[in-house]
Amino acid sequence: MDRMFATAMRFTRNKADAEDLLADAMLKAWKSFDSLEDRANFDGWMMRIISNTYISRWRRDKTHQKIFDDDLCTSDIDDTESLYARLHQPFLLWFGTPEQAFVNSLLGEDIERALDSLSDGYRIVVMMIEVMGFSYEETAESLEVPIGTIRSRLNRGRRQLQNALWQHAQDAALVTD
Length: 177
Fold this sequence. Notes:
Layout: H1 2-12, H2 15-31, H3 42-60, H4 70-73, H5 83-86, H6 98-105, H7 108-116, H8 120-131, H9 136-143, H10 147-171
């Protein structure tokens, strides 16, 4: 139940809304429990119900209608230099270096804070694909947008996340410019 609540919190960023989302998802799960074919995959099934319930709410909410307008898609993140371009070696090949110390020092709450800093549209796509393990096709189907749109939102979301984590590392004096 903690994992489900944590997922609801990641989507809503608000305890009361997360509780409401989880309650709605549990009710939907209860009503459709007979459709669960693989009971060993209950957690995955519940995560899908939680995310689909959130997405349905998000679509109905009139304040989110313009979340993917042209200004958002052409923001300055496209011009932002990549973390990889700032450093001398590929990120994943560092071992026993200050860069590795940076990676090791990132705490879960720092990553969550960076994830929370993403705009809703990008955060939803990053959450569904990177955190919850949805495929591009499943995400596109859930959000009712083309796969190409999912790919671009994921790329932009990853870059925003990368920049937020880079800024955190600089603020914590873990790396220098």
